[in-house]
Automatic annotation (TrEMBL):
This is Penicillin-binding protein. The keyword Protease applies. The keyword Protease applies. The chain crosses the membrane at residues 21-44. It holds the Pfam family Transgly. One of its GO terms (biological process) is peptidoglycan biosynthetic process. It catalyses: [GlcNAc-(1->4)-Mur2Ac(oyl-L-Ala-gamma-D-Glu-L-Lys-D-Ala-D-Ala)](n)-di-trans,octa-cis-undecaprenyl diphosphate + beta-D-GlcNAc-(1->4)-Mur2Ac(oyl-L-Ala-gamma-D-Glu-L-Lys-D-Ala-D-Ala)-di-trans,octa-cis-undecaprenyl diphosphate = [GlcNAc-(1->4)-Mur2Ac(oyl-L-Ala-gamma-D-Glu-L-Lys-D-Ala-D-Ala)](n+1)-di-trans,octa-cis-undecaprenyl diphosphate + di-trans,octa-cis-undecaprenyl diphosphate + H(+); Preferential cleavage: (Ac)2-L-Lys-D-Ala-|-D-Ala. Also transpeptidation of peptidyl-alanyl moieties that are N-acyl substituents of D-alanine. Residues 453-483 are annotated as: Disordered.
């Protein structure tokens, strides 16, 4: 017995000696690893360059009272960066208690936690936590640098390097974290961490998370809400609150996974005396009840203003003001953080959307019908209103005929279509050339309908003879006089009167005069200049024609369209924006004579239906347009303050004769005369209008 007891004691002493040796050996290993880690960290670079965070960019319209309202937001990452005073203390305490209790005492690195994580990664290949808040922030900064790259391959290579599973990446993070704490205060690091960290999906930063999950601000978060959001940071996929059907973390079980993590954080806050027992117990008793609030994203959220929004977006992506080349502009756009204040007038835009909805259907049986409205400020080029009869979508799945992502109002390279024939609204450029050559509105012009027009002068392409195939007629059988004055031809839109004028002019010069008003084909091609083009056969964007008519109303000075008034960057500083370029298209005297004739169109001619339905009325000029077979119908005109073009067009496929087609609002061909007065009534009410300049007698007598 004595021998047996003695043997047992010896065995126990032996086991204790073995355990002691093992512990000593482990301690030596850990010490060596710690020493190695410290040496490595000391010798690694510790200067972390912190770039811009990716944020939302917002597009606004400005109301008459000066207030701004949001049209749409754009982002790769839904983030709104905020200051420390805009973040609830509950959030800060929850973050430090749950993620890094020693945050305010360590030098940037939780050395033992990080070392354990690095060893685990080294031997198992698995990622283990233990990183301090500063280390987590470093990792997020490195990932954000990758997100800012425009090239997809470069971005993925960078991302793989920033997130690779290796102890060396962990050591690099440690080194950078130590360096970071030498440059920034703890409070600032915590603020930046809460602004950069992900909260699931495309939600980044505490302000966006508060808005998305609880429809509040970072400053307004309650204690249980703050703890729930911080819980998400630990494992966004596991703890995020926007999947109510989840069986592990959904509405049916009270978002059990998030609540468990939330309550752990609340326990830690109590343990560290960040909250009282009463506050802790009250917060624990509160169920997790998210109020998911989807952010405004993309132009589709702008509703009837979506196509104007799309034009703003195209401007941001394509204009050199936002970057030297496409790559730089794309990189800037990905980073975001811009607040873009546009030229859109909400009052006019509302009327545009209402009158379009009332007068042109989104779809029509066996006809791909389009409706367009564009208004531009005279003398400024500011686009005040823009809409069309379709629902905006860039989603390939939206194939119904009421959807399109094509902007019928703009050029092809601005997200628009190939344009539409303008009909007789184009005739004003022949009138401009006629007057510029010293001719008068009272001259008599051979306007007889015939098929033997002979040779037309064309100084660019040489003399043009179209033979008997060219025999344009007039819209009304009563327009059969042999001679008309340019004034008569303008008032009643007599085709042969304008062909007669063109016969006495140079076709090339007529084209150049149109170009002087900024007129160009929507597809980017050269304007056609044959005799038929005088009657409006070029496909042109409505916005282009609105700007040209604004130029006529502006004493012959045409201003290029602009859609942005000002932009502020992420730091609030004003950024340069594209400016309208204004040029003298024709002399003020010629413009005055054009306006004289075009006012008569409104009071006595083809535009009278629009003129007399406008209230209040101010001096207005205008011109109607109808293409062959009544396929497209137009009304274009202006006061001295606002120019508006409206049209009903055939978008594709087999067209309809608009004079034989009826919408619920009336005949399709007269929809233009219902929409244009609605627009100009609102414009006149708001902006007023002055008398047009008196033309010299030599141009009208």
């Amino acid at each position: 017995m004595t021998t047996e007891l003695s043997g047992r004691k010896t065995a126990r002493r032996s086991r204790r000696r073995v355990r002691a040796r093992v512990l000593i050996a482990l301690g030596v290993v850990v010490a060596l690893l710690a020493t190695t880690a410290i040496v490595v960290v000391v010798n690694l670079p510790d200067d972390l360059s912190i770039g811009r965070l990716s944020q939302k960019s917002n597009i606004y319209a400005t109301s008459s009272d000066g207030s701004s309202y949001l049209l749409a937001s754009f982002y790769d990452q839904n983030r709104v960066e905020v200051g420390s005073d805009a973040i609830s203390p509950f959030v800060k305490d929850a973050a430090t208690s749950g993620e890094d209790p020693g945050f305010f005492t360590h030098g940037g690195v939780n050395i033992w936690g990080s070392l354990t994580g690095a060893v685990t990664t080294l031997f198992t290949g698995e990622v283990r936590g233990g990183s301090s808040i500063t280390q987590q922030y470093v990792k997020n900064v490195l990932v954000q640098k990758c997100e800012a790259l425009a090239d997809d391959d470069e971005r993925m290579t960078c991302y793989d390097a920033a997130t690779e599973t290796s102890p060396w990446r962990k050591l690099k993070e440690m080194s950078l974290a130590v360096g970071l704490e030498k440059k920034y205060s703890k409070d600032d690091i915590l603020r930046q961490y809460l602004n950069i960290t992900g909260f699931g999906g495309s939600v980044y930063g505490i302000e966006a998370a508060a808005s998305y999950y609880f429809n509040t601000t970072a400053a307004g978060l309650t204690l249980p809400q703050a703890a729930s959001l911080v819980a998400i940071v630990n494992n966004p996929v596991k703890f995020q609150l926007d999947e109510p059907e989840s069986t592990t973390n959904g509405a049916a079980n009270g978002y059990a996974a998030n609540k468990e993590r939330r309550d752990y954080i609340l326990d830690e806050m109590l343990k560290r005396e960040k909250i009282s027992t009463a506050d802790h117990d009250a917060a624990i008793s509160v169920p997790v009840e998210p109020t998911i609030t989807e952010p405004s994203t993309g132009c589709r959220t702008a509703g009837g203003s979506a196509y104007f929004c799309d034009l703003v977006l195209q401007t941001l992506r394509n204009d050199p003001a936002f970057g030297a080349d496409a790559d730089e502009r794309l990189a800037n756009f990905r980073l975001g953080g811009y607040n873009v204040y546009t030229t859109l007038d909400p009052d006019l835009q509302r009327v545009a959307e209402e009158t379009m909805a009332e007068n042109v259907p989104q779809t029509f049986e066996e006809w791909d019908v389009g409706g367009v409205i564009t208004s531009v400020g005279v003398g400024t080029g500011r686009v005040l209103a823009m809409t069309q009869n379709k629902d905006y979508s860039q989603d390939p799945a939206d194939t119904a005929p009421n959807f399109t992502g094509i902007n019928y109002n703009t050029d092809l390279d601005q997200g628009g279509s190939n344009g539409f024939q303008t009909g007789s609204t184009y005739k004003v450029f022949t009138l401009a050339e006629w007057l510029s050559r010293g001719n008068s509105l009272a001259d008599s012009v051979n306007s007889r309908e015939r098929d033997d027009w002979g040779t037309f002068e064309d100084s660019c392409n040489g003399p043009q003879d179209y033979g008997e195939a060219f025999a344009p007629g007039n819209d009304r059988s009563s327009d059969d006089d042999s001679y008309y004055t340019p004034l008569e031809s303008t008032i009643d839109s007599i085709n042969t009167g304008f062909i007669g004028m063109a016969k006495e002019l140079d076709l090339c010069d007529i084209r150049k005069t149109a170009e002087a008003f900024g007129v160009h084909r929507a597809d980017g091609g050269a304007l056609e200049q044959g005799a038929s083009s005088v009657l409006g056969t070029n496909e042109i964007a409505p916005l282009t024609m609105a700007a040209a008519y604004a130029g006529i109303a502006n004493n012959g000075v045409t201003c290029t369209p602009v859609v942005i008034d000002r932009i502020t960057g992420p730091d609030g500083a004003e950024l340069p924006v594209p400016q309208s370029s204004c040029t003298q298209s024709v002399s003020p005297e010629v413009a005055a004579a054009m306006s004289y004739a075009m006012e008569r169109v409104m009071t006595d001619g083809s535009g009278a239906s629009s003129y007399y339905d406008t209230d209040p009325r101010v001096p207005m000029i205008g011109k109607t347009g109808t293409t062959d077979e009544n396929t497209d119908t137009w009304m274009a005109g202006a006061s001295t303050k606002v120019a508006t073009v409206v049209g009903v067009v055939n978008v594709s496929g087999e067209p309809e004769d608009q004079r034989e087609t009826y919408f619920d609002s009336g005949k399709a061909a007269t929809a233009r005369h219902r929409m244009w007065p609605a627009m100009m009534s609102a414009a006149n009410e708001k902006y007023g209008g002055d008398e047009f300049m008196e033309p010299p007698r030599s141009l009208i007598r």
